[in-house]
Every structure is written in C-alpha cells, then in structure tokens.
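USER:
Class, as today's exercise, take the chain set out below, and explain how the chain folds.
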Amino acid sequence: MPILYFDCFSGISGDMIIGALLDAGLPFDVLEQEIKKLKLDDYNIREEKVVKRGISATQFIVETHEHHPHRHLVDIQKIVGESDLEEPVKNTVLEVFAKIAEAEGKIHGVSPDTIHFHEVGAVDAIIDIVGAVVGLHTMGITKVFASPLNTGGGWSKCMHGTIPVPAPATLELLKGVPIYNGGVSLELVTPTGAAIITTVCQDFGQLPPMIPKVVGYGAGTADPPVPNLLRVIIGEETSCWVSHLNHTEHKHSGPKHNEHRH
C-alpha cells in the first residue's frame, strides 16, 4: 500500500501540494480533466519547471481574471456538489472548506455559514483545494503523513489589514499540529494548505519507516533564504527496516580477514 510523506520544511500551500504531486508523477492531463469537472469559467492552469536554490521542482500555476469574489460556504457547496467529481473527492473537498469556514467564523465571531470567502473563495483557491484532493485520490494515496510545519513568521497583508503570521485562521486550523518558526519572516503556511493537510493527514512527526520509491518537489512563489519547496516522498510502508539492516550485516558477517592488514 502506498504511503506518502509531506516534508514541510518550507511550509505548505495548495499549489505547492499539486506541484509536488505533479513532480512525483501525477499526469497533468488527468489533473486537468478532473478540474474541468468543476465547470468553472475563465481560468487557465499550467505546470512549469523551476529551480529553487539549486533544486529542480514543479510549480502549479492558476491564471484567472476573476476579481474580489465573495462566495459563502453554500456557494462552494453548490459548485462542488453539482460537479462531476467522484463522491470521495467531493466529500473531502467539502470537509476542507467546512474547516476553513469554521476557523474563519471563530476568528471573526460569526457563524461559519455567514463567512465571506475572499481569497479562499476565489477560483484559483478552489482549484488548488480540489486539485490537491484529486491528485491524492488519482495516485491511490490513502495513508498520508507530514513533518511539523514551518509556518514562517512576521506580518502579512490581507483584506482586513496587516496581521501576524501565522494568520489567525491558519493558526486556528493548526490546533493540535506540531508547528515552528524556522526564522523566515514570511507566511509559509497558507489557510488552504493548513486546511488540506489537517484533513488528509493521519499523523505529524518524523519520517515513518518506509521504502521511498518517488520523490517530488512542489515550488511556491516566494524566494526566501531556504528553498521555497514542499517535498513529497511516496513509497511502500514497512515495519521491516530492522530486518533489512540485519540482512545487510549478515552479508558481511563472515571472518574479517582484512581487519588486521593495517
């Protein structure tokens, strides 16, 4: 059974997740066909190879001419519900948006149903969330783990003004998740990234015992001192790593005639 590990040394966002999955072998044409099932207009998606601090990666880009969307949760539910996406994908996507609405509602002191999705309700954010969920589903990934999240720090500008990093809604989403500030004055974990990872991830911590098969790098748009990348490691789950070490030792366990030559 495939197991996936997100190495979030430079944070996480929806587009970085998709970029990492594309870099790890998710076919772009399959992703494109799935996103078309949303029946959204006036957008274009593409993938681009980039290099961040000497590391080759894939960047997922959404281009749209939509300005200042003001969608409510019910609008998102209608878009996703009336799409031709598979039911498991729909359910996960709606769970992600429900989490965001709940977090935003708590921060602003209003009901989740009355929340105006601004940045998160835009077409590009909808595509990022759907694309990330579709990617995991298409690749047959059912076990997802992640490292502690480097949130970054400092200040960020949004529609409400200047706010601390992590953003209040992002931090609300990350309750119970190990996070840290790696010393970068930049928002590294976005609300969409936080909502996606806390929905699909089974646990957070060190790299679990696994046999890596594929490694992918998804690029962000920033250029901090550390590579603005999300690394994804896909492989086989294993509990036999000790046996592998023992097997290696046994291959060399005969008389060590060369030990005394020096």
Observations:
- Residues 21 and 135 are 7 Å apart (CA to CA).
- Confidence is low (pLDDT under 50) at residues 241-262.
